[in-house]
């Protein structure tokens, strides 16, 4: 039956997961995946703003060619803490631990994840790791770069590398448990009728992400353990003074960190699939291709890591193989972009805020992805390795891609999570400001990199100043674009319009339950009988009474 | 044997929701004990997957250094006791057998054998750890602890000093032996070779240490299972924790099955037993 | 996942004896000079022992396809790490004169 609700005033259910239980213990000892999602939301937002603060200081320093604001050592600490906080404490958990935790079980028609206590444990491990990060920051930070390269990190620095490494190890364990939970949930907890071919693409993406989390993160753990031991006991595994091989560190580090960047984009792609289809009122074009491309990205992502090491001293033959494989990994991503575009073709587009973010994603991710292919080419990489070209590339995919998708998803599911709508006009404004600010910040960096400005330098030749000033100006605009949602989301909690069950008229099981959902997600077990994204047809999802 | 991929199993789960009795161990998010047990076992396998990758990282690093510093690795391997390693391997395999028997006892509802086999597994585990402790002590005695090379490095063990360079002895032997056999490739110096041998010992302690750490966790798990088994918690309808404990224990055994030849049996035919 | 068939104690004991036998074999063979085949044989025996533990003690032989896939995936992924890393180290001196 049609779910048109224009004539009916949306109501907030009397009892839902937020007011089911009160008190700090009901939150800190919760097993409800929805509450855990909110715990994560608060935590990662804190680290996003911490990382953003470091970014602001970096851009402030780079306004002038001289290294006049900070010493070079301090500057090293700034970009290291920016990278570590953003990568390990914000981006890796972002969509999976917040939106994934909240929406995935509901999308499957399940009452919770497979292992709710492990879900809570994973948040506590994250918080434990966060304390290490904060402790490191308070005691002066690390200056190794987020990549912790040896032998610099294993023996030459006097900053608290081991302390930070332990924090990152635990953040890794947190993500391993999240991934484990998702994998088992998707395999074992689907509602009756929810076959693999009916799963929302958001589930496919998070499933693929979870595979990466589970297979790659343990290698990071052992690498950082070895690094910490090298620093403390000089065991000789990475430090050439004791017979160790620094390139081995890079191999082991990037075996995780390259798949990690796919952890940091796949969930975003999943969100975009949901947004594009809903706001084009059209089924996703090529559902199977998009679904399998997520798995393909996860698998291929493991075969390309040495493209970060082209100039590190690996063999030429090995470099050629990795270069070829790196170009291949772009294919499944391209499949997605083409399918999203095809979905929009002849669709009924509505430019609500989530759709603005989705459209921004498609453009910015394409630029980021294409520049990635440029970097995969050996000759080009030798020229632009360790320059701002690389920085621009990964910020296009991580910020223009993942963060944009995260914001789009947050706006899309905000009514479901809180029962309230955010205010549309400020939201649209913020989306546009973010888009403009982002491009102003990072596009000049492509040019800077190509012209030869190296990364991780706090001083640069004066001829680069104009582009740097543009970039810093853009950063201020971008900051406004990020701060606005923080303000109006909080505002909406009290003053936002009541959303009702399905403000977007979207398909998907999460929209068949109340906003906010009850603690057990559904009042009755749903049974799925139709294909996903059944836009344009009569709604046929029935609820078994 | 079915997976949850078909509508039939989904319906089965839905049907089982309507059954009136709820096993006391059924968690709220599951519809049936079968679903819970399937999820738990699968979850444990995914966890073991992460353990394979973690040990795997260590194994990869080990492999690369073994190729790079082969003579030093031979020397290091020769200096650890193959008899103790062999004994330990048998001990651990026996403990895997008793653990499998424990799972079988739980599954067939035999409480006393279950308790007996769990205790046997723990005793064998303790024997393993005891032997490992003895081996570590021997290495300490011979000054083969990493960080002792020619007076440099970590020195909190006392006992070892510049006068007793420990690894330096092995290094000297390798260099002399290589000279005698007329090898023409440029030889590393004794100090370099000592460093390389030190790396062997780093891996020896790291790999067996990480393994022993997992054994200790296994022993704690066994203790918890033993307490629950004595209380009569397990039977044919619910013995998942025992099965999961078994999977963990067998995995730790498999790691050792690889560690033994990789660490203890490098070119044994060249050196003394 | 419903009940699966279980091995009998007798089968467990046979596997145990087989594993002990292979352990003795690998120890004895280590003292023979097989040149390049020493590590290969040792690893082959280790893989055989591991397979026996996985199939019988860990019940994979009696489990569903998903579990078998999970185990294979683990070892396959480890192989990716080892082979691609080694491919760098081993090809450094390839064709270099």
Chain-wise SSE layout:
The complex is a heterotrimer of chains A (545), B (273) and C (97).
Chain A: H1 24-28, H2 33-61, H3 72-91, H4 94-108, H5 116-138, H6 152-156, H7 161-188, H8 201-233, H9 246-263, H10 266-279, H11 287-300, H12 316-328, H13 330-344, H14 353-376, H15 378-384, H16 388-418, H17 424-451, H18 465-495, E1 526-527, E2 542-543
Helix pairs in contact in A: 2-3, 2-4, 2-5, 2-18, 4-7, 4-8, 4-16, 5-7, 7-8, 8-9, 8-10, 8-11, 10-13, 10-14, 10-16, 11-13, 13-14, 14-16, 14-17, 16-17, 17-18
Chain B: H1 7-17, H2 33-68, H3 70-78, H4 82-107, H5 111-141, H6 167-180, H7 190-230, H8 240-264
Chain C: H1 9-29, H2 37-57, H3 65-91
Helix pairs in contact in C: 1-2
Please tell me about this protein's structure.
The complex is a heterotrimer of chains A (545), B (273) and C (97). Chain A has 545 residues and is mostly helical. Chain A is built from 18 helices and 2 strands. The longest helix of chain A has 33 residues. Chain A is globular and about 70 Å long. Chain A starts with 23 loop residues before the first helix and ends with a strand. Chain B is an all-alpha fold and 273 residues long. In chain B, 71% of the residues lie in helices and 0% in strands. The N terminus of chain B is likely disordered. Chain C is built from 3 helices and no strands. In chain C, helix 1 runs antiparallel to helix 2. Chains in contact: A-B, A-C, B-C. The interface between B and C is large, with 54 and 52 residues.
Work out the number of β strands of chain C: 0
Give the low-confidence spans of chain A.
1-5, 538-545
Tell me the overall shape of chain A.
globular
End-to-end Cα distance of chain A: 16 Å
Strand order, sheet with most strands of chain A: 1-2
In round numbers, the mean pLDDT of chain C is 88
Q: What's the gyration radius of chain C in Å? A: 18 Å
Helix segment tally of chain C: 3
Q: Tell me the number of strands of chain A.
A: 2
Helix share, percent of chain A: 55-70%
Structure characteristics:
heterotrimer; A: 545 residues; mainly alpha; two-stranded antiparallel ribbon; 18 helices; globular; disordered N terminus; disordered C terminus; C: 97 residues; 3 helices; 0% strand; flat
